[in-house]
Each structure stands twice: as structure tokens, then as C-alpha cells.
Amino acid sequence: MFYHVKELQYRAKPERPDPVYAKKLQEILGGQFGEISVAMQYLFQGWNTSRGLEKYRDLLMDMGTEELAHIEMLSTMIARLLDKAPVKDQEHAAKNPVMEAIMGGMNPQHAIVSGLGAMPADSVGNRWTADYIIASGNLLADFRANLNAESQGRLQAVRLYEMTDDRGVKDMLSWLIARDTAHQNQWMAAIAELEAQEGRVVPNTFPRELQKQEVAYAFMNLSAGEESSAGRWASGKSMDSMGVFQYVQQPVPFAKKPTIPPAPPSLHNTPPMLR
Amino acid sequence: MFYHVKELQYRAKPERPDPVYAKKLQEILGGQFGEISVAMQYLFQGWNTSRGLEKYRDLLMDMGTEELAHIEMLSTMIARLLDKAPVKDQEHAAKNPVMEAIMGGMNPQHAIVSGLGAMPADSVGNRWTADYIIASGNLLADFRANLNAESQGRLQAVRLYEMTDDRGVKDMLSWLIARDTAHQNQWMAAIAELEAQEGRVVPNTFPRELQKQEVAYAFMNLSAGEESSAGRWASGKSMDSMGVFQYVQQPVPFAKKPTIPPAPPSLHNTPPMLR
Amino acid sequence: MFYHVKELQYRAKPERPDPVYAKKLQEILGGQFGEISVAMQYLFQGWNTSRGLEKYRDLLMDMGTEELAHIEMLSTMIARLLDKAPVKDQEHAAKNPVMEAIMGGMNPQHAIVSGLGAMPADSVGNRWTADYIIASGNLLADFRANLNAESQGRLQAVRLYEMTDDRGVKDMLSWLIARDTAHQNQWMAAIAELEAQEGRVVPNTFPRELQKQEVAYAFMNLSAGEESSAGRWASGKSMDSMGVFQYVQQPVPFAKKPTIPPAPPSLHNTPPMLR
Amino acid sequence: MFYHVKELQYRAKPERPDPVYAKKLQEILGGQFGEISVAMQYLFQGWNTSRGLEKYRDLLMDMGTEELAHIEMLSTMIARLLDKAPVKDQEHAAKNPVMEAIMGGMNPQHAIVSGLGAMPADSVGNRWTADYIIASGNLLADFRANLNAESQGRLQAVRLYEMTDDRGVKDMLSWLIARDTAHQNQWMAAIAELEAQEGRVVPNTFPRELQKQEVAYAFMNLSAGEESSAGRWASGKSMDSMGVFQYVQQPVPFAKKPTIPPAPPSLHNTPPMLR
Amino acid sequence: MFYHVKELQYRAKPERPDPVYAKKLQEILGGQFGEISVAMQYLFQGWNTSRGLEKYRDLLMDMGTEELAHIEMLSTMIARLLDKAPVKDQEHAAKNPVMEAIMGGMNPQHAIVSGLGAMPADSVGNRWTADYIIASGNLLADFRANLNAESQGRLQAVRLYEMTDDRGVKDMLSWLIARDTAHQNQWMAAIAELEAQEGRVVPNTFPRELQKQEVAYAFMNLSAGEESSAGRWASGKSMDSMGVFQYVQQPVPFAKKPTIPPAPPSLHNTPPMLR
Amino acid sequence: MFYHVKELQYRAKPERPDPVYAKKLQEILGGQFGEISVAMQYLFQGWNTSRGLEKYRDLLMDMGTEELAHIEMLSTMIARLLDKAPVKDQEHAAKNPVMEAIMGGMNPQHAIVSGLGAMPADSVGNRWTADYIIASGNLLADFRANLNAESQGRLQAVRLYEMTDDRGVKDMLSWLIARDTAHQNQWMAAIAELEAQEGRVVPNTFPRELQKQEVAYAFMNLSAGEESSAGRWASGKSMDSMGVFQYVQQPVPFAKKPTIPPAPPSLHNTPPMLR
Question: Which residue in chain E has the smallest CA separation from C29?
């Protein structure tokens, strides 16, 4: 169960309105790696974590609850950036280059659909979708998803930091960027803990002998040229310490040409005897 | 540019048809972490990798090209599992419990839409979407996405392995599971290489002093109860070696209640003076 | 069964082309509350209305059929607004600020995909989806959906009216806005009729004693601060006349901490005994 | 900013596992009118509410925060219903009709993707999308959307109540159904308050004389047959008290056949002079 | 502008309810090639057809209007097939194998969401999307899309015809299948007319000398094995009579390895100088 | 199984960067008829083609493999067009009209999300979806889909050719346009071959007498006005040579008004006896 206080976790106040930037900032609110994604991802992972794993469950609920506060901060910032956006008469704007530039660069839905409010959408207007998130029941797998989300999220926040010189916006982003630093570190710590217990390959509980061991550490050089042989992944002990990397210079097929059986006549596929 | 040979990378032949299982197997062909996702993700990352990073580009193209072969193997397997599926007369099936069970458990689109062929969709019929993939231009971020994809993918393949006793299916899955082991190891190796050069926080090129340092290693205990204080993420040196984890037991807001400025009258929002 | 006449229900002729505005106008053609949505929503509700409810079915078919005419008017208007859009040489446009402004503000798909025709999409290019509509079989619920659709639709049309000074566009919008006035009134009338017969809570046929009566009129103050206690919803007789509103100042949980049972080993979730 | 406590708002404990029902229950978690939809809808509306409207903002934050607790209750219930789901060997299940029925009726993603956890998806597996929600800046419009959401939501919860005889599930649903009763009443109260101040047509701030008044209260009989003339919407004073309903028995077009201007040659549309 | 009559274009009455088949039949109502797709596709093409092309515009409006009647027939049929569907108590159904089979095979949304009405969705529950349709402004291109739609649509209707022995359903399908025959023939006729005037390659108005002529009739043998050399497409005069097919046995790249320039530092991509 | 070489099939090098055009060019990479669509469509059709149809399978694999090379060319071109895009400080750009125009016309995700790389999305940012493709098992139907895809694809490429005067871009497009010419011709040839064997109506294997023959060649004049009677489709021998086109001037319904049976009370639809 949740409680809300009206104060923001951190301030979200731009120096001045900037509706073009508001459109861009939507990316880290409602985009693939925006705050809605991490909030929903951590909460669903938390709710699905079973007994015996309480500290991970608590970790997930702590972070998911924080991300709700970040959604709130970004929604507030976007609404404020949209203040005084020129939304009325196209005609007059066209005569004023600054107005025109702003109107051209705004997301029209910020005027027509949301009335200058933030939207659950990305910087080009794609609505947020749960296709973006994952909660698998395997925490090591999921924490890797989380580390990726915080990495992509911080990268996008940093890019947006560089795209403005509004000190208010930069101030808020410096908070979110710091929290992404914390979260990357925290997921790395949680991953290290799980890997120490379970081993590094997900899932670790599947009997190794049931996989086709002869290719479990092989690298297939399927793009002509061998630049890839220079990497750590191409030779030496494998990262899970259970094998040795091999570089297969000229990978060949292990199987024959397949044939597909014809469908029954009632499906009216093209019949196989056709000549 | 690509070339195709008709032989499969590895055999994809079930012992017997099983249209109910074919539906499930769609998950690792066309689902969020299916083979289409990894193929497209690695190829787009590769094409977007700039000069000076040739070995990573080659790595990505090698792996992306292999994943195309895995799409092919799964498509072949699914088409063969659909062989002899009962697709004709509902009425007669209903009298035969086995037939009926099969028809009830099949994906109806395997008959109506694809004519017993594989589909670019997941195990409940959601079509594949590029919402699933990521290529950011930052390789450390993206390799973390790749490690996650191989982790989730192997987890799903292992679950599917447990759901059948068809030796042909298990044989093919033992190949894919082994390749996922290799790929997890290889992405871990590539990540280790990049982290050694760049540092562990993505992106490493953003000046640390520009982030709000005081919260860059703090853990916010926002879900009542302190089970989360027991983890590695709650105390000690941070994983990037640049800070020390702090556990904030009672996090409070840093900012005041926000207010949102009213929109101009031309948007016909609810007016603010309303009493 | 339907018949079409080529005349428009009302004229849809702009004074002059305006491809930037054409992009915006797409919102009320193919957006969440555009004319495609109301047409499809009313028609599906009508087709699903069962016998004994003929006057509602006829109402729905009357209105759904009218909305098809509105799709037609908007498609026509958009195609005309796109007339003479500068679609050829980027280079030359860049030298002419007006041309450039137009090209920058146009939807590029209006040139590349539809050849200056209207599209079944919103003002940022999201394709129309049946996710937008509802037909539940319960007419009181659905008429509330319809009242909402006409409210949002009129709001958006009014906003678009304010964004142009083309008298032809305004003329057409003044028609659509009036029809939305009529439709809002008509759905309110239909709702009043059904509420008078059925009661105001949807569905009215569920035995009241089967719901947890003690919280059926309570308001939970879960966001700190009690501004919400000042509303009609916080005290007095409930709107269905069956209860009295109560304001719960400090809502507490009614249940204990949940625990989730561990999944079977064959799913390879993180095992619960992990320490 | 939000805080979480681990206790549930109300208990969510089934008498026994039922993975087939778990699939169905997903509808009111992650479907069009599930708890994710109302939580996100109310929170976005709240964050976008401007100053001078504090009591409505608080109302929205109170309710949105409660809906987060309902997401949590449903996620918990679904995970518990999935306990002991038969997820292993297809073959053995096929020999046991009960097992087989369960496996056939389960959502396969509950095993393959979420490891027996709840998913942000509906009862057929469509992922939740922000296409479902609305926050327009006009509170009367949005409260109508909210009343609809609570009406559709309660209807679906009641239908699900009828589809089980598990007393634990019914107990939790009796809570949610009661809360939907409360919320329907509360939105009706808030709507009544706003209508009393603003008038009943959304938006009320648009000058009435700018709409095409002659059709602002007309009903168009576009589906043959006049059953619809029997309704309250067809005659008498309009619901906004500003007009009188008229029933137009034989509606005719008000405009001429439109023609669309040909596109410029550079678009390579079919040329108009074609004979 | 449209008018509706309540009579169906053709009868849509099953011999008996069959909710499992109702789910399947959704495919040709709301699937990729269902009746919603053809209706919307033809209407949008029609509305976008410019002056000088009146007979094609009329053709499109005639057919689009007919498809609206087919949506209506299928909606009616599906609602009738859902009659008497067992939607109540899961428990009791489980004891009755027939009931259980039906409940397992039904689309749960037919009960929970639509109240036994038809839905704008396909046979696995994916909602209809305008991603399915096309209206490009080039009629020859679009009529090819239409011929494809009628081909896929008839194929799916025929498959569904084979999956039932309900004489009422078969009767209705025999109508739709016949209409698809007519429409395939009619689009072929329209295509022949346009090809006779314009030539066969779309668009015909682009100067041939501006394309890379040396590969405009070449076939690239990029999948090992030369089975494809046996087809009409591999040798002889081209279908547009403007060239001669050539079979390139061993296609080679025409260009060098590309390199991608590094992004500016402000994007924080992986830097190119990394070693 | 696939192999990759690093050389491009054809060069993809612009004369100069142009981030606004890069956004537009995304349409033929990741749009409905972009190269991802044809690659995936042909490959899935190929993998699903059954034995006895080897030359068609090879044809599909040859072409699908070529389209992978086109994805690569377009990704490369887009990344190069994005070179030197102004992505940093909004403020400074606003003072420079050229910079500002570029920033306004760019896709913001090219900076924030992909780091100046190509994306699997169309020209307005909609992500690619497998909703765009088809593989039915009936080759005549599918080859018609393919002919349409190459027609729409060439049309879009030609429009994009007209929208730039960059000689490098035009050079690459002249290659793709030529390949689309080849592919249109090749699909026409394959269609001719199949029609010669099977007949022209898809599917040809369904007994003609089972369709409602009396309307199998009729044209329904459902849009007032008889312009459509002037076409080849309205009279004369049908294209399949099996019938004669008839023009039905005043089509009437063949069936009565339908009624829908009421749903059972447990669904809580509006009850039918309501007066």
C-alpha cells in the first residue's frame, strides 16, 4: 500500500518555459527507458518475488517507490516548461520567427490532447507500453535488465543535460543523473551478490551437461574479417570459469537442408505437387 | 551484405508433431527476448558502431548474423511441430478428447493466418515489435542490454526445455541453450573490457562533479521495513570505487509542493479561479 | 447495410492550403478521441445491443452512421489543406524561410506515405487502434464512455478552432463542435433515462450486500493534506442515494504483508532458500 | 513523493491455486480498464492540475495512490493463484484430463515469461499501453472519463466475481467492487460540482454563438427506422437547458460533392488526366 | 455521407451457439485482413482520390461501403455464436468436460470485456490497428494492395469454412467467399486497366534512366543453390516488356566497407579512440 | 544459415550530412513498406514453404537475403546523414536560423535514443512491427502481397528521391529503385506462373460450387452515382474467365433485421426487458 506526500523528492523548476525542450524531455518520462518503465519494472519484480528472498523484494519496492517520485518530478517539470507555449493562432506565429520556431518544434498533442500537461509518451509521441518492461522471476536475469535500464536511462538524461542551458532543468537532471549513478552501483552490487552464490550464467540451476557443451564457449566468426578475434571474448578462460573461449574462424552448418511437410488440403496452401 | 546457405546451423527436427507446444515455442522466436529481438538488436548496434571501434562492430555483426540462423531453426521447428495439426472440422474433434485438447491449445492463427507456418509473434500471438530492442551508440550500455537479453532468452529456453519430452525438441534447445551460455560469457567479457577502460558507470564521460554528488551513492528506504539494509548495495565501497554506499533510513522530500501554472484560455482547460 | 452519397454532410473547404495545420487536424480524425473512434465505438455498441433494447440500438446506429460522415469531412479537409504542400526539393526550401517552416512542420508521411491524403493516424503519426474503443454490453457504462468521448472530442475541436484563422476550417469546425454539443446532450439524456430505471451505480444488477459495504462510500485520504475533504464527494448523501460519504483521514492497511509461494524448480526462478 | 508499506490495503488470498482463473483476472490488472489504467490516469491528471484547483488535485492524488494499492493486491492474488500450476512435462499432463485442462487454459507466458508472477497485461496477453488513458487539462471532461473507467472496471470485476466460487477471490473482489461503488459515487459528485459551476457541455468556455447553432440540438435519424425517436434525447428541453432537442427524420447533406486537388507530379500519384 | 438500413446484406445466423468458433471467426472481422481492414482501406483510398479519377473514386466508395455491411454481418454472427456461452462458475464447468472444453477454448474477453458481443480484434485478441491498411495516392500500387487483401481474406474465410459444419455459418461464409471472388476479379480488372495506360511498374512516371538500369532486371542468387533459376523470373523478357531478366549466379558487393563517423562528445557514445 | 561480408551491396554515402532528411529516409528502412518489412516477409514466407515447392522457396530466400543488405545500406546512409547534427545546446541553435531549422526538423530520438544511429522506426518514429508482414502458406496470395510491397516501396523511394538534391543519396536511391523495378517484375513473373497453373482466384482449390455463385461476379453500386459502371470491372468476362461481371445498380439487403439474444444475467449487461 502506498502513501503520497505533495512535496517533490527534488525540485523541478525551469528558469523559463521551453516547449520544444518539453517535447524532448518526454523521452525520460514515457520512453523505453523513462521513469515509468523503471517504476513499473521494479514494482512488478518486487510483487512477484517469493518468500525467502525478502531483502531483494524490499530492495525492489524501495527503488520502485522512488521511481514513482521521479515520474512526478518529470511531469511537473514538463508542465512548467510548457507554460506560455504559443498555442493560439498559427497565422500570427508565422509572422514571428521565434514563435514559429517554437510552434514547429512543439509536440502538437501537448496543446490539443493534454492542455499543456505532461503525457505518458516518449519524445516523438509514442505512448508508453508494457512491452518495455520485464519481470521474470529470476532475479539475476532481472537485475541485469535493471542495470541496463539505469545505464540507458542515465545516458539519455546526460544527453538531455547537454541539450539545454536552463539552470533549473540542469539542476533537476543533476539529481536524476546522480540517482542513476547510485542505482547502477546498487544493481551491480546486487548482481555481484547473486553471482557469488549462484554462478554467472542465468539460470544457474539448469544442469550443464544438458546443454550442447561443445559449443558452449565457442565464438562463431560469421561476419567476414577477424577483427572480433582481438577481444577478451575470443580466447582465454570464460567469464563463468567453467570453460575456455574458442574462436571458430570458419563456422559451418551442423545440419542438413530442412524440408517442411505440406499442410493438409483443408488449409488451401499452395499444393506441393505443383510443377 | 549477406549470403544464405540452405543448411541449418543445427538440426531442428521434433520426434513428432505437437501443435500445442509449437504455440509455446513461438515465445523464443518472436517474443520480447526471442531470436528476432537479438538478431535485430545486434545488427542495428553493429551498423551504428562508428570507426575506431572495429572489433566491437565485428563482434556485433558476427553474433547478429548467427541469430538470423536461430530464427531460421525455430521457424523450421515450429512448422514441423505443426505438421498434422487437426485443423478441419471442429465438430468431429469435439468428440475426440485428444483432438479437442489439441485444438483448444493451439494458436488459431497457426491455422487461419499462417497455414501451419511459424509467425513473427510470441506465445500468445502478440506480433514482434521493435519496441523490444535498443541500440544507443554507447557500447557499454548496449552490451548490458545484450547480456540481459541472453539471460532472459536462456531462462525462457530452459523453461521450454522442461515443458516437453520430445527428444528432437530437447536436442535443438540444448544447442540454443549452449549458445546462450557462450553469448552470456562473451558479453560479460566485452563488458569487462569496456569497464576496465572506461569505468563502470554509463556514461563515464560525463563530469562527475556535474551530478548531485550527495545522493550519488545513497540508498533510499522508501518501502517500510529495512530488509534491504542487509545487502551489499547498502553499505561499503561502491562498485565503481568512487564512493561509499549510504543507507537513508527515512528519506524525506528535498523540495516544496509544486504548483502548475494555468494554461492560456484558448486551451479551455478548467479555469484556475473556479471555487 | 450501408449506403453512401457523395455529398458531404457539411462543407469541408479551407480558404487556403496549410499543411502544418493538416498535421494537427489529424488528431480529431485518427486520434484517441477522433471521428474513427466514435464511429467504431457506436457501431460496435449498436451491433452488440440485444433484443428488447431496440431504441438504444437505433440511437447507436444513427449516431455511428453520422460519425462515418465526419470521418469523410475531415479526410476531405485534410487532403485540401495539403494541396500545394512543398514536397520536392529540400535544398531550395531551406533557402526560403516560409517554405522551410512549412516543411519542418509537416508530417513527412503526408508526402512519403499518403501522397497528400489524410491518414488514419493522430497528430503525431500514431496509427489508430481499437485500443481506443469500448463496447461492453452494459449500456449505462458504455453511454458514459460515449459522453466522455464527445467531451474530449469537443474539447480538442475547440482547441483546434483556436489554432487557425482560416474561415473555411473554422466553418467546418463550428459544425463539428455543434454536433458534439448535440451528442453530449443526447448521451446525457440517455444516461438519465437508464439511471432512472436502473440506479446510478454500474452494474445495478449485482446484489449490494455482496460488496464490502463498509467501504462502499468511504473516501481514502492517501495523499497528505486534506484539500480533498472540501468536495461534495467527501461528505453528505452519496450520489446513488444509498449511502453516506465518509472521509477517512488516515487510511491504514486492512491486511498483512503478503508472501508469494516459490515457483517449482522447473521454472528456474531464483530459489527461495538463497541466503 | 511516495512511501510504501508492505501490508496490503485488503487481503488477496485465494482458497486454492487456479491458474486458469489467474489468466482471466489479468484483465482487471493490466487491461483497458484495469488498475494500472486508473492509477496512471488519476496520477497524470493530478500532476497536470494547475494552481487554483487544489482540492481536485488532491482528490486525484488520493485516488491515484489508492489504485497503486489495488495493482499490488491483484498482482499478489494472481501470483498466488498461479502457485502449483502444472508447468513441467506436457506429455504427462496430456494423460491427466484435469492437468491437461489447466495447461490448455493457462496463459503460457505465466510460465515461460514471468515465472508464475503477474504481468502488466490483459486476459489475452496484450501488454498494457498508455493508449488506454487520458488527462486533458479539462477536469469535467476527465472526470467523465474517470466515471466511465470505474463503471467499466466494476462491471468487469462483477463478471469475474461470477466466474469463480473461490471464497478468497470473491472476498477480495467484494472489496474492489465496493471501492468502485465509492469511486463512481465520488466522480459523480465531483462532476455535479463542476457542472453546477460551469454548465454541462464541455468545454463551457467556448462562445456558444461560434458553433453552428442550428444543429446543436438536432438528432439525425441516419439508420432507417425511428425507434430512436422514443428516447429522451429526441425531444424536450436539452440537458444543458440551453436548447430543445429536434428529431430530424430524413437528414440530408448540407454540402456538395467534394473534389480533391491532384498532388504535384513529384509525388507520382496516379495522374488526374488519366482516361 | 452514409445511410444505414437495419437489414443485413446477407443472413448471419448459425444453427447453434459455438463460442469457440466465435473466437476464431474474429480473425476475418478484426484481423489483419478482416473486414475492418478492407472497409477502412477502400474508404481512405476513395476519400484521397483526386479529381479526374472519378470512376476509381466511385469504385472505391462502392466497395468500401459494402465492406461496412460485412463488418455488420460478422459482428452479428459472432454475437449469436456466443449465445448461451458458459460464463459463470468455473468450478462447475470443470466437472463437465464439454463445458470445460468450451470455456478453455473461448476468448475470455468475450465474457469479461464485451459481454458476449463481437470485438474489433483478431482471433487471438490483438486489437485492430490502422497499421494494417494503406492508401498511397497511387492507385495502381493501392489496387495491388487491395487484390492482396481480398486474396488473403478469401483464403482465411475458406479455411474457416473448413473448420465448422454449422450450416448457418457455412451459408454466410459462402456469401463472403463469393464476394471475395468478385472483388478479386474486380481489382484484377482495375489493375489491368491502369497497367494498360501506365505501364506495369509502379510508379510509371519516374524517368527510367534515373534508376540504376544495369540491375533493374537482374536476379541475385544470394541463397546458395540455384533452384530459383528455373522460374519465369530468371530469364526471358521482363514482365514490363522493357528489359530482359538476368540471373546473377554469384552476386558480389558493389561497394566498400562503410565506416560511420563518430558522434560528437556531447552524446556520450563510446569514444572512437578506445583501444 | 547466413554469412555476412562487410562490404555493402551498393554504396551509401551522402555528399553531406542532412539530419532532417535522415528522419524522412527512416520511412523506407523501418516503415510499413521499408526494407525490414520485405526482408522479414520474404524470409518468413521462405521458411514456411513446404517441400515440392523448392524453386519458390529458393526465390524467397534469395530475395529476403538481398533485403537484409538493403537494411544495411539504409542504416549506413542514415548514420552518415546524421553526422555533425547539431545536438548540443538548444539556446545557441535558436540564435542561428539554419541550426534551428535543422534541430526543429530532426527526430529528437536520433540524438537522445540512438546517438546518431539509424533506428528500426519510420519517418515519424513509430517502431517497426510485424503487423506489417504476411506469410500465409498460399504462395499466390503472398506473392501478391510481395508485389504490393515492392510497388509501395518503390513509390516511397521515388518520392524520397525527389525530396533531395544530394547526389550521394540519389545515387543510392537509384540503386534501390532499380532493384524494386526488378523485384516488381520478378513477382509479376512468379504470379503469372502460379496463375497459369492454378487459376487466378485465391485459393483455387476451394470448390466453386460452395460459394454463393449468384454474387460471385456482381458489382454492388453502394455509393450513389454510377461513375463506377464505366470500368472494366463492371461488365464483360471476368478476369478469371469463369463468369461475367454484372453491375447491380440498386443493391438491396438479402436478409432481415437481425436480433441479438440477451446475455445471461451473470454478465450484468443491460437487461433486455428494460422499458
Answer: E44
